[in-house]
Records
---
Amino acid sequence: MFIEQGIKSENNFSKYIVGSIMLILASFVGQIPFVAAIKFDSMFNGRSYPTSEAGIMQYFESNVTLILILISFVFVILGLLLVVRKLHNQTLHSITTSRKKVDWSRIIFSFSIWSLLTIGTTLISFYDNPAQYVINFKPIPFLILVLIGIILIPIQTSTEEFIFRGYLMQGFANLARNKWFPLLMTSIIFGGLHYFNPEVTKIGPVIMVYYVGTGLFLGIVTLMDEGMELALGFHAANNLIGALLITSDWSAFQTHSIFKDISEPSAGADIIVPVLIIYPILLLIFSKKYQWTNWKEKLTGKIDKI
């Protein structure tokens, strides 16, 4: 059983607090290259050091900024590997899946279905509301973006999944000895960390429904499937295809995407439809394909002490 793989008598919750602090420190270390690059450039090229988050994000060309942002996740995943192995005496595999080997077919299936859905809905929206978009495509910057995305975005999304649906899911299970509490807590924390995204400022706190709902969806998928493979594929597709397809002046990532959304953001169907309609449909598809059963026990059941 996936969540039980982290349940050990010596693996008390205080270790997860220490481990989480170490991961936060690793994240800070990972941000040093970005800060250093800005300081170096401002000193030697006479440019003013940015005083706002927007100024920081727009200081370099967008592909350079994207690299510098995503590099921090390399530090975090290395920190996670150290924490899991040395602090908890586990392997990265043990917080990834309950299967003997990582099931790449699950990752590819989840990646493919969400990629196709994302591409399809984006194209429909473009042809239905062409005035809301401009063609942003520039061949060379786009090809560089593709290269950056293929290499670094899966590292970013996998790191987040390892932490939330793997490490912290098992950590909260050690604390609560049930499954509903880890599912709820990891979803709330995952959503809460997106609170400072520029989208929240533009659209309002209601968008947190989408972020927390996405965390809840990924947590349900992980618990029902006894592993993170489907969540890994979904998250990679969501960020990679999203970065390649569309950008806007108010989104967290500014990219050389194919389209640029120039409409004024608002809280509407884009927030509610995924959480209330699309995610349940995906759960149904996954459940039929992988023959999920015993939903109540897997999502809310107690965990016997070890």
Note: The chain has a mean pLDDT of 93.
---
Amino acid sequence: MELLQLFVTASIPVLKVLLITALGSYLALDRVDILGEVTRKNLNTVVFYVFSPALVGSNLAKTITYQSMVKMWFMPVNILITFIIGSVLGWILIQLTRPPAHLRGLVLGCCAAGNLGNLLLIIVPAVCKEKGSPFGAPDVCHTYAMAYASLSMAIGAVYLWSYVYNIVRISSTRGTQDSNQSAERSPTSDQVSCTEPLLSSKEYVIVEENGDQYSLPYTAVPEEKPKVTTSGKLKQRIVMVFEKINLKTIFAPSTIGAIVGFAIGVIPQIRKLLIGDGAPLRVIQDTAYLLGDGAIPALTLIIGGNLLKGLRGSGIQKSLVVGIIVVRYVALPLIGILVIKGALKFGLVHSDPLYLFVLLLQFSLPPAMNIGTMTQLFGAGENECSVIMLWTYAFASLSLTFWSAAFMWIVTRL
């Protein structure tokens, strides 16, 4: 009966997400046209530059202190582990299914990067408010849930735009090069193939024998190659890496908001000015909270509108979609349980049930929606990405409910 109660508790937040997502899809229909493509793009811009940074910064500023940072140091490592394991499983999937070159980066990205911000911001605080929640007082749970989800969103954005962005970029570039090379190799009707040699065999022998008479004198000059030291090679490689990484995308507004939130929370002098009922500049923090409250419903509506593209379909292999679903909803959560149990055994994480629940949930999320933005940016696999997002988010309603209940049951017994 207790497990059934946990399952009901886990299903309520997912149902809320489904209802808002369905509303977003309805508003994006052509006959309704309230949340059309242009509107979604403009709303997404407002969320990206205003709502999300306010949400992340305000929640981190209120809950983050030096002591809590020491306790939460494992979260960036945990997210990195999800990216590494997801990439390995994605590489295995690519070897099994052999997708086109321009889709390989998309497959790797969908297997590696989960929706570490939006869904956690919706699901975890909503679980705290449910009657059967095992995480204590709803108000305290909600405050720390927002902090954990905001930190996850900020770290996930850095990994996403530094790792997945470059994978999709390289994959789309290689796919374009391969298509261009195949077009150059294929003969056209205007080309005439010459099978006759320009010189007969006898003429070729005469020219070859007398070739030295027509050659210019050549004096070999030894070239002195500059010696490159080990430190010089290392410096060149570091410069090449920084040239390829787009720092502007890494330091997204939500990341900047996280940095500001950390600074406010950790520095006592600034914290006293902004945080608390008696803070002289508390109006700034209240304004940030007010703006941040608009992020969650707006993001969920945008997700619903974007998923509508996947209904049109594309020529993507069914095995790819099934493989990504298996990686994200079966393999990764099972591996995540082993990782967190191992970290708890070796004392790498503290035994806070809510914190452990968030760490486990990071292994079971659907692919990050920003991957669709990357495919639009590079013009490779946009339709295929829409189909992947449609089916993975459709299965997420069942998967997240199941794994949320299972994780709540696990963390109460660790």
Note: The chain has one domain: 2-175+236-411.
---
Amino acid sequence: MNAPRQDLRARQTRLQDYQAMLARRLREARSLPAADSYLALQVGARNWLLPLADTGEVLDMRPPSPVPLTQPWYSGLVNARGSLLGVIDFSLFCGGAPTPLQPGSKIVVLSRQVERACAILATRVAGLRHAADLSLPHGDAAPPPAGTPAWEGQRFADRDGRDWQVLDVRALLDAPAFLQVGRVTA
């Protein structure tokens, strides 16, 4: 009977150790040149790189409180240390399926400026990436295809061949479609 309880404690300890290590590495990475450091996220089926200079904190997953008459991609509000924070299902915003949530999913705050802060749901946080560890896919620096949103930055590939897309947080926070959280009614 104690075995399941011990397994649960061991998993909780490993998760706490991982979270502490990730927090430590985030602090350390912030001392590196910001242009060279990214927080890597999986959001639905896509992999995103958030520049550390434009990224807030990583919060434990908790269900956002729904807000009526908002866009389908607006998941709702969470309380983050006394401040209300809007949470976006970024996969839905990008036209994909809802972000699948699983144990270990997180809420990632975009922007360190309180007045512009909001957050996105992340299926998982994949740690830190540095520009030196990434390459242009297929060695190509071609411009993005026509119609690509301004907030989709450079694409990279990691050593394992996975594609990563840089999220230009500032451009996203200025995008009219992103700012239109309220559902337009006719």
Note: The chain has two domains: 1-30, 35-179.
---
Amino acid sequence: MIKWDGHSHTKFCKHGHPDELERYLEQAVELGFGRYSVTEHPPLPERLIDDERLMAELAMDFAEMPAYFDYVREYKKRYEGRLDIAIGLEFDYLHENYAFTERIAEPWADVLEDAVMSVHYLPGRGGLRCIDYKPDDFRVNLLDYYGSMEKVVDEYFDHVEQAIETAVRLPGRKRIGHIGLIEKFRQALPPVDEAQIRHRLEKALPLLKRTGVGVDVNTAGLRVATCGKPYVPEWFIRECVAAGVECVYGSDSHKPEQVGFGWDYFEQAMRG
């Protein structure tokens, strides 16, 4: 099994770190990684959510896309023979707006090697709301809107299932991003029923198998104080492997020192 970090960000991420990609890549080489996927946030529709300040921090602008691809391609050449760098994007699942996703992907279809499809937004108070912004924002704009954590969780996994179906249409290797992101604020909000999470993950497994979409085994939850665990449980990784669903470790690094974070968890889970 190649040591592969399949989910990472760059200076093009407006909520990330200004360090050059080289620092991330050198960390990956030092830790013995053989493949490294760069999966930056592509543009979002204008006024997707009604918080202008937050919108400005979420994703690249369309005008930045050529520079991003040129940037990663340059490092791909520079590290040839030392590290297999895959050019990718972390697409947002945009409910009933695949036309926008297609507008992003189509011009770069020949370049894209990795496509992570993530659910970051749900319908809520006043329109779409970001599920991983702040606990108080979640409480006011999602929990109060749906009335219970159970209903929010079900809405989230409904969108995850639709995202998996949508990801099939993207170029390159396809994975569903941090499938358990809905638990990011689990220690700051009313408890999530783990039996419900298990049921919804088990329900998603045949869909993953049928579509050939893989799983981003995202460990970023371990470094989030209100979460404290990976976004993909060990039992689910084992069931995915048994079903032939590809599982790819993802550090979701937004800083160079986060590359490789939580690899031990992934390695242990894959050993079964």
Note: The first strand starts at residue 4 and ends at 5.
